[in-house]
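Entry 14. Ran structure prediction on the chain below.
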Amino acid sequence: MLRKSGTQRRQPPLWRRCRSLRQVKQVHALMVLRGFLSDPSALRELIFASAVAVRGGVAHARLVFDRIPHPDRFMYNTLIRGAAHTGAPRDAVALYARMARREGGGGVRPDKLTFPFVLRACAAMGAGDTGAQVHAHVVKAGCESDAFVRNALIGMHAGCGDLSVAAALFDRWARGDAVAWSAMISGCARRGDIVAARKLFDESPVKDLVSWNVMITAYAKRGEMVQARELFDQVPERDVVSWNAMISGYVRCGLHKHAMELFEQMQCMGEKPDTVTMLSLLSACADSGDLDVGRRLHSSLSERFSRTGLTSVLGNALIDMYAKCGSMESALEVFWSMRDKDVSTWNSIIGGLALHGHVMDPIDVFEKMLTENVRPDEITFVAVLVACSHSGMVDKGREYFRLMQKVYMIEPNVKHYGCMVDMLSRAGLLKEAFEFINTMKVKPNAVIWRTLLGACRIHGEIELAEHANRELLKTRSDASGDYVLLSNIYASVGEWLGSETMRKLMDDNGVNKEAGCAVVDSSSKDLTWSSG
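Output, structure tokens:
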């Protein structure tokens, strides 16, 4: 199956047709049935397809890898490469450490294809000390003069290691290498030194597209969109990374209209959007509540993935967008149509249903999640407890709170405790809510005390309200709403002296009540008024 020993090789047609982790797993199952798991070439192909060729398959590749008694260099390099490009670069370093230990016992020796990805992982982690140790291994292996390894060293040292080492490597060997210039620029930008990065960029004799994209991205991440757009308009040739940097920058800055306009320009110029583009735009639709544009993006994605189905990442973004735009029916349609669902998919739909006041639907979906053996996480239980709170299902909420701790061994955090307090408070079980707070393993925050205070107002519990307010003022004494809330509780039961006392306490502490403000969009004109 393999044509050569590096990570660059041809794939047989069966692997090349795999476009998702689901398809890779199907081929894996076929390998098991046909007895190919004893074939090293087939195992190499399987690890490459899982770790590199498809998105989100590194964990599956690791499961396969851990069952191989004597993995070879290609397998190590491929898995390290895949892990270095994920959100858990620490796994790449751990794999490298395992590989290096085996070398001492006559096992697998790292080579020039190993080091660039390990160094990339070190840079992503900000682990300069670990990177320096890997640098020593590079020198020992005689790979420091290799251009790819050298540029990776420059990038790592410039980004999180010893800047003087990066400069020495750069000055000694690499001033004529455009990739080395990009590595230096990228490293300075990663450190947050945009001035040094721009100085290097301006001095660079040959600017490749990577350098342009690094600077555009650096400005966009800092919210300096004017400077980013200036470079974007000057770049001789753009790729999808250039467009994505600008679009995501506009979205982060809340400039959703600019993001959409740039997307339209991108399409007019024949540049095909990728997953990152669509995620940024769906985020813009979710934040701005633009359901019409969101539906058009969904239509475009449906056409693009008509054969393979939506990836879990895009499906999750669509569910989130529809939920935030208030269209839970569409969110459910996306959810049930998805072939590959991860825990985030279930969390998105359960959370959306809960926040929109659906009573039984989030509970039913959660129960189905459990029957399909999808392990819930702490976010899942926050969403489920919110659903129980909004629907008044106190017994069910208690059951799930115990399930989280006893079965799934998840320690409650302040959000879980807050949901329980809210649930008990909504049900009028205020004394139980206070007792529950006393059993918490974390310190209650202002949100929890404010939740209780609001419930005391509804149920007219003056004594408990006073206690909650005392605790609340310990956490923060400059929030006018907390004083006003207790004042209104006194007033609601005719305790005018207590109400006046709270108002006077505000004045004595120098707390000013913020004026209320409302904005109404009428015929594209914002009408704003305030009330003191």
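The mean pLDDT is 85. Will compare against last week's run tomorrow.
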